[in-house]
Structure formats: C-alpha cells, structure tokens
Amino acid sequence: MKPEVKSKVFVGFPIPQAGLEKLQAQCDVTVWDKAEAASREELLAALRDCEGFLSMAPYRVDDALLDAAPGLKVVSNHAVGVDNIDVAACKKRGVLVGNTPDVLTDTVADVTWALLLATAWRVVEADELVRGGQWGGLKPTDYWGADVTGATLGIVGFGRIGQAVARRARGFGMTVLYSSREAKPEAEQEAGARRVELDELLRHSDFVSLHCALAPETRGLIGAEQLKQMKPSAILVNTARGAIVDQTALVEALKTTAIRGAGLDVFAVEPVPQGDAITHLPNVVLTPHIGSATEKTRTQMALIAADNLLAGLRGERLPHAV
Ligand code: NAP
Ligand code: GLV
Question: How far is the CA of 142 from the centre of ligand 1 (A)?
Fold first, then answer.
C-alpha cells in the first residue's frame, strides 16, 4: 500500500498549540518560528509546493505570491482583517480565503477601552513619574485627566468591534455617535448610538475610536483636515489599522496639541521603527498590536484558522470564508 501523501502547509509564524496540533494531525506542516517574519523571498520559497498557507500581516498575498505558489488551494488568515490579502486575485484563481471573526470582538473592544482610559488618565506618564521618583506629592492642580463619564464617543465603522465598543460606553453614561456606510437601526438601539456624518462626528466627539476595515476607501481616512475638525481636547483611539490614519499628520497634531492625545494599537509601519516620531510624544499611549492578545482568544483564533485551512484543503466551504 502506498503511504498517504499529506498536504503541505506553511504556517507563517508560531500559533497556539491547539491550532497547530489540529493541522499537524492531518498535514505536513512547516512553521516559520524565527523572531522576525520571513522575508518575501523566504516566503515565496516556502510556499512553492504548498497547498495551504496560514497567513497574517505583514505577509502580503497578491498575484506575485499566487504565481509563486501554483498549488495553493487556501489562504487562512490568523486575523479578522484581510487587508493583507488581495481577495479578488485569490478568487480569480479559485484560492479560498478565510479569517477569524467574532471570537476576538470583545477582546479588541476591551483593549480599545484600555487605551481610551489610559490616554484619558495619562496612565503611562503617571506611572513613569512615580517610578522615576519624580512625584512631588498630591497637588490639586497637577496631572489632570480627561473626563470620560458623560463625554461623547464617536465610533468610525459600526461593525462587530465598533458596536461592542459602543455597548461598553453605556456604563460610562456617554453619548455615542457613529459613522457608517449605512444606518444600522437595531445595533443603534442596542448600543444607544446615533448615526451622523464623519464631519459631525469629528466635530462633536471627545473621543474618536476607529473600527473600520482598511480598504481603499478608508486608507488615510483620518488626515490633517479631519484632525483639524476634532476638538483640541479630543483623544483619538485606533485599534483598527494604522494606515487608516495619516500618521505624519497625527504626529503633527499631537505635537502642536491640536488634539489632546492618542491611544494606538496599530501603526503605519509595524513593528514601529526605533526612534519613530510617534514614540517621542508624551501625549500618546502605544501598544504593540495586542488587540486580540489573550490566551483564550488567540487559541480560538488558531482553531478557527486551522479549521478554515483544513476545510479548504478538502475543497469544502470554509467555516469562516471571506
Ligand atoms: P467588521 O464587523 O467587518 O466591521 C468592519 C467595518 O468596517 C464594517 O462594518 C464597515 O463599517 C467598515 N468598512 C468595511 N469596509 C469598508 C469600506 N470599504 N469603506 C468604509 N468602511 C468600511 O469587522 P470587525 O470584526 O469589527 O473588525 C474591524 C477591524 O478591526 C478589522 O478589519 C481589523 O482591521 C481590526 N482589528 C484589529 C485588531 C487588533 O489586534 N488591533 C484585532 C481585530 C480586528 P460600516 O458597515 O459601519 O460602514
Ligand atoms: C488583527 O489585527 C485582526 O485583524 O484580527
């Protein structure tokens, strides 16, 4: 009897064990486990004879990659966002694409709130002050933060995560505005939110939180003009994608205190280069793209990514198809 030939699969980075074991039980798996992501050349070489790719940014799936991997049947992204994948190019060649929605919604909403509150209360600055022995004692005029309770929150992109962020705002007695391509009356009612145009949202919000997908229409959506429309006392929070914001314009707005501060989990370039202008500002709180980073959530994402990949190899519809 001929030995069974298992499908070759390339996993672009280490994933939680449960997902990996699921793949290893059925496939011939290679995991890229170096500290830095594979270079483009290394990636294309690794995918040459693979049928499955478990991917994520910064890996770009485009025509050139698909040319270099003619046997590829499925690209399973270990993320909900698929802006690193040319989905149309995959579709044209019959390559299936999967992602990991829902299981991370609450985790990302929680991280959004962690950033919003930490920026409002200058938590990082205050922590450094205490650790550095620079705290001169309690004074009524020192280290004021921004009121969150009763403030206005503007949510740009009212999808799963945007709505979860809005639901949490009710506990803070906030007025919630959102901008969206279409009205969502049910979600509006559940979250107590009101739909407005982006201009109005920017003018009236004390906190602006970005939750739209990165697409040609949302790339650079928040630029110099939009930042000018925001209140000087306002805080911008971005847990969506760095490229939705013009980061150079944001640095300028923060430097000149045209806006009060920013809480950022995502950046124009990731990882953020050492010495980048954004890292020199006192009025920002920066986290390294940790929106979904809990053991439970990342394990669920790995299991979904594995299920998507295995379904694609069998030629079945993916449980979470893009
Ligand atoms: P979702 O439910 O699909 O919501 C995304 C929203 O983006 C859509 O509902 C839509 O808002 C808006 N949108 C999509 N395409 C657009 C376009 N072409 N033009 C304008 N708006 C568009 O996705 P989700 O699960 O909430 O995730 C949202 C994003 O969060 C992901 O795409 C990802 O980039 C980011 N994310 C980040 C982390 C992290 O670790 N920081 C983790 C997970 C996700 P409207 O329908 O209201 O127009
Ligand atoms: C992470 O950024 C995701 O899109 O899931």
Answer: 38
Question: Active-site residues: which are they?
Answer: 241, 270, 289
> Smallest Cα–Cα separation from 245: which of 181, 129, 131, 156?
156
> Which domains does the chain carry?
7-102+295-313 (3.40.50.720), 105-286 (3.40.50.720)
Give the global pTM.
0.97
Q: How many CA atoms lie within 13 A of 96 on its CB side?
A: 24
Q: Which residues line ligand 1 (CB under 6 A)?
A: 80-81, 101, 104-105, 108, 157-162, 180-181, 211-215, 217-218, 239-241, 265-266, 289, 291-292
Q: Which pLDDT tens digit goes with each residue over 254-294?
A: 999 999 999 999 999 999 999 999 999 999 999 999 999 99
Average pLDDT over residues 191-206: 97
What is the per-residue pLDDT across 1-19, written as a single tens digit (0 to 9) for each? 666 789 999 999 999 999 9
Phi, psi of 173, rounded to the nearest 5 degrees: 60, 35
Q: Which of 80, 85, 97, 301 to mutate to test the pocket of ligand 1 (most atoms within 8 A of CB)?
A: 80
What is the mean predicted confidence (pLDDT) over 50-61? Answer: 97
